[in-house]
Amino acid sequence: MWAIRCFLDLQLCTIVEHLQPAMAQLRGRMLDIGAGQSPWKEYLPAGCVYQGLDVQDATEFGMSPRDDIAYYDGTVMPFPAGAFDSAICIEVMEHVPDPEAFLAEVARVLKPGAPLLLSTPWSARRHHVPHDYHRFTREQLAALLARHGFAHIDIRERGNDVGVIANKLLVLAIRMLRPPAWQRGIWSLPLGALVAAWAVLMVVAFHVSQRLGAGGVEDPLGYFVRAHRANDSAS
């Protein structure tokens, strides 16, 4: 079921593609910022110490409390400076009202030289409304990270324009195949079946384009970032 979900859910697929091998290289104490239900914890290598962090109102995002997650008000992280050897922040930045203050806090709790793995969506529907505030370009991400004490910033596109089209078609197909009333279903169900077939073809086309290195990257599904806390980071 996980493999099927990764095949169809292109946002998830492109996150896992970058995140899993990157997390395998982490060592020491790792902070999972915006941890939710800790879906990435299993990617940590043996010997890493996991610490989750999320906002106190995480239930508004559909999350249930966990013992390995610390909860805070979203301003000052409840950890001393330089407490962590690495951090991940996966699909969280778009929900942060003040990214400048947030990244300053991330830099503060990391040791000098510690890696940060971060992903953000670009082409994505509004989600967890009303807590969806931003879409970041690669240029904006680079400037934000550099301004708040990060260096060696490597930004990669997640997916391509073929994936964006496939993703939109899947969303449309699901909506058309679940009409709110039977009257609408008379026309939306047959059309939805056609859209679903086209969406599956585009999903296959996306995976082929990824293998071949084809497709345009000016309109990706999102971005994946690797950066390191600079030795002279400002807190």
Written description of the protein model:
There is one protein chain. This protein is of the alpha/beta class and 235 residues long. The chain folds into two domains: 2-159 and 221-229, 3-Layer(aba) Sandwich (Rossmann fold); 162-212, no CATH class. It contains six helices and seven strands. The protein has a seven-stranded mixed β-sheet, with helices on both faces. Helix 1 (2-8) packs across helix 2 and helix 5 packs antiparallel against helix 6 (182-212). The longest helix has 31 residues, at 182-212.
List the helices and strands and how they pair.
Elements: H1 2-8, H2 10-23, E1 29-33, E2 49-55, E3 69-72, E4 86-90, H3 99-109, E5 115-121, H4 138-147, E6 150-158, H5 161-176, H6 182-212, E7 222-229
Parallel strand pairs: 1-2, 1-4, 2-3, 4-5
Antiparallel strand pairs: 5-7, 6-7
Number of helices: 6
Low-confidence stretches: none
Under CATH at level 1, the class of the largest domain stands as Alpha Beta
- CATH H-level homologous superfamily name of the largest domain: Vaccinia Virus protein VP39
Alpha-beta classification = alpha/beta
> How many strands in all?
7
Strand order of the largest sheet: 3-2-1-4-5-7-6
N-to-C SSE string, H for helix and E for strand:
HHEEEEHEHEHHE
CATH topology of the largest domain: Rossmann fold
Average pLDDT taken over every residue: 94
Fill in the keyword field for this structure.
alpha/beta; Rossmann fold; globular; 6 helices; single chain; seven-stranded mixed β-sheet; 235 residues
